[in-house]
Every structure is written in structure tokens, then in C-alpha cells.
Amino acid sequence: MGHVSGGIACAGAQRVPTRMIGDILIVDDHPLMCDALAMTLTHAFGLKRVRSAASLAAAEKVLREGPLPDAIVLDLNLPDVRGIEGVMSLKKLARSVPLTVISAEVDAEMVTAVMAAGAQGYVSKSLPRPQMVEAFGRMWTGEFVTPEEYDADGAGEDGGEQMRELARSFATLTPQQMNILRLICQGRPNKLISYELSIAEATVKTHIAAIMTKINVRNRTQAALLASKARIFAR
């Protein structure tokens, strides 16, 4: 993956003309960040509409009610979600919409997981304004963009493909199964999961069996380890 100035690395992808980006959704629980990003991108690209959501649930509501935005900008750390769960959830609702993760942290494993989950790019919040605008311009013309310090080749071709396979497997889980998996990762026993989700313990067991089948593991421990490896709920 080639490097360009300003801490951004890019590779070619399906072309999406920038002029088609007129309506974006920013998902971030920091109002100042939302406002600053909205003003920066509106000024740079002449956006017609910028919507915002402070949680994953609010963003899902925006997408369900429509119309879909032309692009989504997502902070990984929200009040109700961590890790790539947010990426997977929003891509299910808006599969054709380019989604960019913007984060204060640049962790190589997280970047790999985010890109494997279907994001168009991963941008650091610390980028200077001109470089950030350049990054969005490249993504909105169809390129995949990652931080300059991220070494995609370092993960290896097999590693990247493995992460994509994991992301695809976890993306098949229903919202309720994802809730149960989250509680499994937190060490909750079936009885407590049943209580917290207000469902029968037998239903919990049925869901867990389905989860293990979908992600191809044999027990709860393996499910939790695989979720951790895929950075599904990670900070």
C-alpha cells in the first residue's frame, strides 16, 4: 500500500465521485468534534447536509428512518459500543455507503479489523486539517485509506484474509446473538445472561449454540477468544 504526505496511506478501490457526497452522517459522542468535523468537511466539499448521532443506537435509527446518507463517519468508542461492532452494524444497514472510522487511537490490529469489517478508511483525529481533508477526498473518490504508520503488509496476506473471514462470520450474528456474545465475553453465566436480557435460559442456550455454529467454535471460551481476536468489542 503506497504512502502519501500527511500520514495517509491509500490503495485504489471502486471509484465514487466526490461530487456525489452531499449528505453525511457523523457518529460521535463528542459535540465539539462533531461540529468541527462538520464545518471542516462542509467547507471543503460543499456538503448540503450533515446529520449527527451520539450513539450507535441513534445512528441505526437515522439509517432505518432514511434517507441513507452518502457517507458515514464513525468514532469507534461510543457510549453503547466499542470495537468493530459499530462498523459491522452500520454496514448491515447501509452496505453501499462508504464508512470511515475516525479515532484518537491508531492501533495496527484495530485498523486491520476495521478494514476487514468493510470500512473505507481509518483516520486519526490528530491529523492536521489539510491532511484530514485530503484523506476524506481520497476515500470519497473510492480509495481505501489507512494511517501512514500502519503497515498493512506487516499483518501478512494470510492475516488480513483471516481477519476478513472472522468479520464475515461475526457479521452473520443477529443483534440478540451479539448481545449474548458481549455478555459471554464479560464472563456472564447463562442464568445471568437470561436475567439481564429478560429471556428464558433455554433461549440463551439456543442462541449460544447458534453463535458457536456461525463462528465455528466448540465452546464459550473459544467464542470469547475469537471475539477478542477480531476486536469485536475491544476499546
TrEMBL record:
The keyword Phosphoprotein applies. Residues 23-140 form the Response regulatory domain. The modification 4-aspartylphosphate is found at D75. Keywords: DNA-binding, Phosphoprotein. It comes from Cereibacter johrii. Gene3D superfamilies: 3.40.50.2300. Pfam families: GerE (PF00196), Response_reg (PF00072). Residues 166-231 form the HTH luxR-type domain. This is LuxR family two component transcriptional regulator. It comes from the Bacteria. The keyword DNA-binding applies.
